[in-house]
Amino acid sequence: MAAAPSLQQAETPDTPYNQNLRQVSFEIQAECPTTRARAGLLHTAHGTIETPVFMPVGTQATVKGLTQRDLAEDLGVKILLANTYHLFLRPGAESIRGLGGLHRFMSWPNAILTDSGGYQVFSLSGLRKITDHGVVFQSHLDGSLHTFTPESTVDAQLAFGSDILMALDDCPEYPVSHEYARESLERTLRWARLAHEHYRRRLADNPAPHALFPIVQGSMFPDLRRRSAEALAALDTDGYAIGGLSVGEPRPLSLEMVEATEDILPRDRPRYAMGVGMPHELADYVARGIDMMDCVLPSRNARNGCLFTSQGRVVIKHARYKDDARPIDENCPCYTCAGYSRAYLRHLFLAGEILYAALATRHNLQRYLDIMREIRQAIVSGSFPDYLRTIRSASEDVE
Amino acid sequence: MAAAPSLQQAETPDTPYNQNLRQVSFEIQAECPTTRARAGLLHTAHGTIETPVFMPVGTQATVKGLTQRDLAEDLGVKILLANTYHLFLRPGAESIRGLGGLHRFMSWPNAILTDSGGYQVFSLSGLRKITDHGVVFQSHLDGSLHTFTPESTVDAQLAFGSDILMALDDCPEYPVSHEYARESLERTLRWARLAHEHYRRRLADNPAPHALFPIVQGSMFPDLRRRSAEALAALDTDGYAIGGLSVGEPRPLSLEMVEATEDILPRDRPRYAMGVGMPHELADYVARGIDMMDCVLPSRNARNGCLFTSQGRVVIKHARYKDDARPIDENCPCYTCAGYSRAYLRHLFLAGEILYAALATRHNLQRYLDIMREIRQAIVSGSFPDYLRTIRSASEDVE
Fold first, then answer.
1. What pTM does this model have?
2. Which of B70, B115, B169, B370 is catalytic?
3. Which of B65, B95, B347 is nearest residue A355 as measured by Cβ atoms?
4. Which of A62, A98, A346 sits opposite B348 (nearest CB)?
């Protein structure tokens, strides 16, 4: 049995480490005495988020197939992610600003995190040219040319009114040489400093409750990861993202990269592992001090017919589900499992019906959110090491 | 000002014209003294439906993009339509029976009407061969051969557990010769008699609360339409459908065909005009004694970007909506109009996002349901002739 966790109650929710311009604040409520896991509260202008948290991905200002009411009321989502690259191209940052910002545009009452656009520039766009000042790229929509600089992506995200902004980063593919990774990382560090200076100036002119997270890079080289974390920690920012993961590397390497920087990043700031992971991996990231995660897996896999349950995966197209009157997961409290059978979902999937995507996505997101709630509860109650052991042995059975 | 409508209150809801086996019953509550419009109640084992009613189309046991909760709770839908042809082919009538029937299969608490499959056999399937016994056809899914007979389509719909079943009909395209239309009609009449006899035998063995409607045909020939209605009226069925409309004919001709049979069909039974119509046409059908309608237009047009409003149509892709913060229709009470702007919907449409279809369909269905509620209210309050004049002059402005 693990010892009781130490509790670090902030004196009041309004006295975090943050100074004037920092109105997004983080409060640690419980720490696991064995692992590096912690449970906390992330305060934003659009509500307080219990951490560790999984953030559903709403690339184009929509989580595919779900209404904002489904997300906020049914699933209890407190923060979601939207995509700077996509929204910059369409409908455009000025258009969103003119419509009252991203929250109002997409009718979303809770918090929004937007990424820097860096990852998409490097993965989606055609022709691109990187300089120390930024990156010129071709839109994947119509081939038009655009420029992202550290400053312009901050401005775009301020136009969106995002609660949490990301600094532009150079996100190398996997694998790259140590030399390339080092050059790329130094560029990301220069960009992070420029983004941060620009952001501070903007907020000095027009104070508003945002946070800007720079992104740790360094490919799969622990020395570069540590160099990155040290340089960014010196910036004393509101939180830290860890990028360059889930780019094709073996999973143990991702975890190792997170581990490499855990003791360098300020422990009183939220840490966000970008683009991870599978359901059984979430606890492994939390055990390494991660507070926030996002991933397209629950929604994309749902649409492709792969449903996550407490008993493993259900590949819904299988003939064995043709006459299966059971819900996807008998232990799941979601709307889909309350009303619909595997047989019906299989029928909708085979018929190519829109409702399939909506019901399946709702279930998979519920699964991710439930896992995060279980993890949080385990940290708070002091049983996280036991929880982690159970998850690891169960995932070995399932995989 | 129109005179007050006559009220025909049934003594109790349980004493309709129906005899033993007829447990779907119709009760006229108010009649327009000028037109043939009436307001009524259609009682089924899955709830009572206020008529005139528009029935959303759920071809594959789903109204595309909406959950059953959206339909039942938000939109207040009391009856929807599903498709015998599609569900017979996939997942199959026996599969649905084994899963507890269509209501349970699709998790739908209210009434279901299923069509005969005739229209789809003639419009969707490849190779087909019509005999007096039925039709052999090729599945549009995989080319496999199947047979529909008047008896087998009743059995399929009983397996579904539909509240209202349709008798198999031969639905000619438009235009056809009088001779062809007459032959086709006589076939439909023979099939209707066979379906009816089979249905009565089945219900004698296993009484259950259903209704079977035969379908008036006769292409665009009033004499054949009257011949059809007279022969079907003699069957003394629970209600009557009018088919063979919306097959490409000019709209005045559809209305003329409905008019041709209005005084022949028993006035105390519900009449269902299949596959109609545009929003401004609904009142014209009601004025000709129609109680029930269905149409894919609100949902299909929604997906194609055409939104119906109280002020006319909104074609959402137009550049003029790019920065339009207004809802689709400021007078609309639907979830979409309560939370989302034209600019956001246009963005979702251009991005090909699933949520667009869900939000747009919800709005268009709300529009149709609201029109039917206005029509019903006008009949009950005696102002339907005025309402009809207003709609006709407004639709001239819009079209």
1. 0.93
2. B115
3. B65
4. A62
Chain B: residues touching A (Cβ < 8 Å):
60-69, 86, 90-91, 95, 98-100, 105-107, 322-323, 325, 335, 339-341, 343-344, 346-348, 350-351, 353-355, 357-359
d(CA B221, CA B210): 31
Evaluate whether B366 touches B334 at the Cβ level (below 8 Å).
Answer: yes
Q: What is the pLDDT of residue A15?
A: 36
pLDDT of residue B9: 37
Q: Which of B70, B284, B291, B294 is catalytic?
A: B294
What whole-number percentage of chain A has pLDDT above 70? 93
The share of chain B scoring above pLDDT 90, in percent, equals 86
Single out the residue of A166, A132, A127 nearest to residue A149, CA to CA. A132
Distance spanning both ends of chain B, measured CA to CA: 27
B320 phi/psi in degrees, rounded to 5: -65, -20
CB atoms < 10 A from the CB of A397, how many?
A: 8
